């Protein structure tokens, strides 16, 4: 990188380039970043993989076992867990790559792991958007929305397939342009966009728009309309539901905003701003931190979307009682199906009867 940079400069920077060639003053050296990533990334990726795989795996097990009682919200939750699992499966490969600084599993796996990574990334975001819109339609437009009136299994499947198609479409450029390349320090799996094209800049904009701006805007709009309706309902559970919605938006913002800020800075770097070796090194180091923070969000999805819901907790306890009767045999589910219907269930988009009565008025 230093050699290329110096070859592009004029004679005014000859002294600077001479210093660059001196091993005692290697500003653009990535050795420190690489040494840090060899320890940091494998450790953090492993923790995210283990925690996320356990949580999302439990969600899938519960929803598959009791799929006959599933509704659209459950199907969205199932696809969200599948998206997170696809994403998590790619992490051990990236952890191994970071640990040894060389890609050892070939060109096909480079494309395959990149596909898992990108499909899981966009799938998780799109299904969070779908779940948010579903809740908005059911609660805010209970009797007027066509979306609310046709929440059938067939409609849910069609919408899920559409979301997967969108995820694939958004992921295709990265999947296509990923390749195994033999560099000075060994084989790498990376995205190489064609020279002289705007694909790289487009990928940064796509990540910012689809990864933060659209989902955050949808969540803020939908929940800002849902919360006043819930507050107007006479229920002891409404404050808990409102807190959970606020937590959902806040957590998404806190976990994904740093990542998207660094992506935007890389976009500016691509345009020629902050175009120094030191800035590039700083961006690489920052990306390792914010990526790990953003990736750990998939560990929280099962907690936010599933385990806080009464319906899901009942089903989960039921499975534990079947699998481990000695340990969980004494656990009891909530009193009755009737009381469950009257509770604000955050993991279920169905609106309790008092909300519907309020909407009629």
How does this structure look, described?
It comes from Pangasianodon hypophthalmus (Striped catfish). Belongs to the G-protein coupled receptor 1 family. It holds the Pfam family 7tm_1. With 361 residues, the protein is mainly α. It has one domain (32-323): Rhodopsin 7-helix transmembrane proteins (Rhopdopsin 7-helix transmembrane proteins), CATH 1.20.1070.10. It has helices spanning 2-7, 14-21, 31-65, 72-100, 106-140, 146-149, 153-177, 199-232, 238-271, 277-295, 297-307, 310-323, 325-328, 337-341, 353-360; strands at residues 178-183, 186-191. A hairpin with a 2-residue loop joins strand 1 (178-183) and strand 2. The longest helix is centred in the first third of the chain and has 35 residues, at 31-65. The protein starts with a helix and ends with a helix. Residues 1-27 and 333-361 have low confidence and may be disordered.
Give the tags.
361 residues, mainly alpha, Rhopdopsin 7-helix transmembrane proteins, two-stranded antiparallel sheet, 15 helices, 75% helix, globular, disordered N terminus, disordered C terminus, Chemokine_rcpt, cell membrane, transmembrane helix
What is the fourth-level CATH superfamily?
A: Rhodopsin 7-helix transmembrane proteins
- What structural category arises from helix and sheet content? mainly alpha
CATH topology: Rhopdopsin 7-helix transmembrane proteins
Largest sheet, in brief, is:
2 strands, antiparallel
The helix fraction, in percent, is: over 70%
Number of domains: 1
GO biological process, one term: cell chemotaxis
Protein name: G-protein coupled receptors family 1 profile domain-containing protein
GO molecular function: C-C chemokine binding; C-C chemokine receptor activity
Subcellular location: Cell membrane
